[in-house]
Write a structure and sequence with these properties.
Blueprint: H1 2-13, E1 20-21, H2 29-36, E2 43-51, E3 54-61, E4 65-66, H3 68-75, E5 80-81, H4 84-91, E6 109-112, E7 122-123, E8 130-131, H5 136-143, E9 146-148, E10 151-152
Parallel strand pairs: 2-7, 3-6, 6-9
Antiparallel strand pairs: 1-8, 2-3, 2-5, 4-10
Length: 158
């Protein structure tokens, strides 16, 4: 259902975009960057997080980590990563293919400002070998995302 739901979402909301399906896995940032010939930061990774009030998706650049202090300051709560089974049950996408498109129901989506460093980013496309290329602003618009600053700068330590 996942790859189909992403294709259906894009057909309805952005028919000019296509899902890129590759023969090899792009389930990790490193694999995706190598397969698409880009630097790891250009991969838009989607983090599935649970807070006491519910689930959120945070999309960051591929080489960034979630900054727990920034996250807590913005959301007023701490978050924990969802387990693989929970991710698939709630997003409809398998781990390694999670993206903010084609979700089975409303889940708040947040895009980290780190994505704005690129003219084009590559989020997964609902399968471990699928992706989409688009500009970060368009991804945020298509998904109704709110821009936040919750990622740790690449190469920094907490």
């Amino acid at each position: 259902m996942s790859l189909h739901s992403v294709k259906h979402f894009l057909a309805q909301h952005a028919p000019d975009l296509e899902v890129i399906e590759l023969a090899e896995s792009t389930a990790t940032v490193a694999l995706a960057a190598a397969a698409h010939g880009v630097e790891p930061g250009q991969i838009a990774k989607t983090l599935s997080l649970r807070m006491k009030d519910g689930i959120v998706l945070v999309v960051t650049r591929g080489d960034a980590r979630l900054d727990n202090k920034k996250f807590k300051a913005h959301f007023g709560a701490t978050a924990r990563m969802l387990g693989a089974e929970e991710v698939e049950a709630l997003t409809g996408h398998p781990v390694g293919g999670v993206c903010p498109f084609g979700l089975p129901g409303p889940i708040p989506v947040y895009c980290d400002v780190s994505l704005r460093e690129y003219q084009e980013v590559i989020p997964a496309g609902g399968a471990i070998n699928a992706a989409v290329r688009l500009c970060p602003e368009r991804m945020a618009t298509l998904t109704g995302a709110t821009w936040v600053d919750v990622a740790q700068a690449p190469g920094s330590t907490m």
